[in-house]
Amino acid sequence: MAATVTNTCLFLLFSIASFRHFKPTKNSFGNTAVRFLSLIGSFVLVFITISIEQKNPIASVLAIVISVTSGLIFIFAARATVSKNLGLVFAQNVSKELVTSGIYKHIRNPFYTAYLLYWLSWISATMFSVFAVLIFILFTIIYYFAVKKEEERLAEAFGDQYSRYLLNSGRFFPQLI
Q1: pLDDT score for 161
Q2: Whole-angstrom Cα distance, residue 98 to residue 104?
Q3: Structural domain of residue 99, as residue ranges?
Q4: What are the residue ranges of helices labelled H in the chain?
Q5: pLDDT for res 88
Q6: Among 22, 63, 82, 162, which is most exposed with the fewest C-beta within 10 angstroms?
Q7: Exposed, middle or buried, 122 (CB in 10 Å: 0-12/13-18/19+)?
Q8: Which phi and psi (to 5°) does residue 157 adopt?
Q9: pLDDT given for residue 125 in this prediction
Q10: Residue 120 confidence (pLDDT)
Q11: DSSP bridge pairs for 107
Q12: What whole-number distance in Å separates Cα of residue 15 and Cα of residue 34?
């Protein structure tokens, strides 16, 4: 139950902070679809975790650790970009400034990393339910294609500066070498 509460609080943090933080020029169909799928997926996963009898405290603790890590990454990303006017997922606008400080020094897409970890935590919280695994896979695919589009726009907007940045940062996780 603690993992469900933690993930629900994290979903609320993501939702409230995203509405305050991001300034889209207009919502795209992709953005609306991601928000809708996130809402539905989270509600279904809450009901799944409530309906199962959690018999493995290690899975619950793991889910909480992953959730807290997700929340911290999200907060660090929000702090690094608070005045940068970033767009929402699948938005067409490109920031006028390339953010390479804070957590962005190591991870190019920390918001997506936070979201992926959020969905991953549900896998542990639901004891590897098929729905949790499928929704994690779905969002991994969605975020991958969103990032590819964003990378194209950033490469066009920032050229060599962005190319150098790619060498020193990981797409979703820090580069180890």
Answers
A1: 93
A2: 10
A3: 2-168
A4: 2-21, 29-51, 57-80, 110-125, 130-168
A5: 53
A6: 82
A7: buried
A8: -75, -35
A9: 87
A10: 95
A11: 170
A12: 12
Question: In angstroms, rounded to a whole number, what is the distance separating the alpha carbons of residues 94 and 5?
Answer: 35
HSE, side-chain direction, 13 A CA sphere, residue 67 = 24
What CATH number has the domain bearing residue 20?
1.20.120.1630
- Classified as helix, coil or strand, 107 is strand
Can you tell me which residue has the tokens 């996963």? 45
Which position has the token pair 């970033």?
86
Q: What total number of domains does the chain contain?
A: 1
Does residue 96 belong to any structural domain of this protein? yes
Both tokens of residue 38? 């996130």
What's the pLDDT score for residue 160?
93
> Residue 19 class from Cβ within 10 Å (0-12 exposed, 13-18 middle, 19+ buried)?
exposed
Is the CB of residue 174 less than 8 Å from the CB of residue 69?
Answer: no
- Chain center to CA of 137: 13
Whether 83 is in a domain gets the answer yes
Chunked into runs of 10 residues, the chain (177 residues) has average pLDDT values of 73 66 59 72 74 75 89 87 64 74 91 93 89 94 91 90 91 80
Task: For residue 35, count CB atoms less than 10 angstroms from its CB and return exposed for 0-12, middle for 13-18, buried for 19 or more.
Answer: middle
The residues, ordered by sequence, that sit 6+ positions from 120 with a Cβ below 8 Å of its Cβ are 66, 136
- In a domain? residue 7: yes
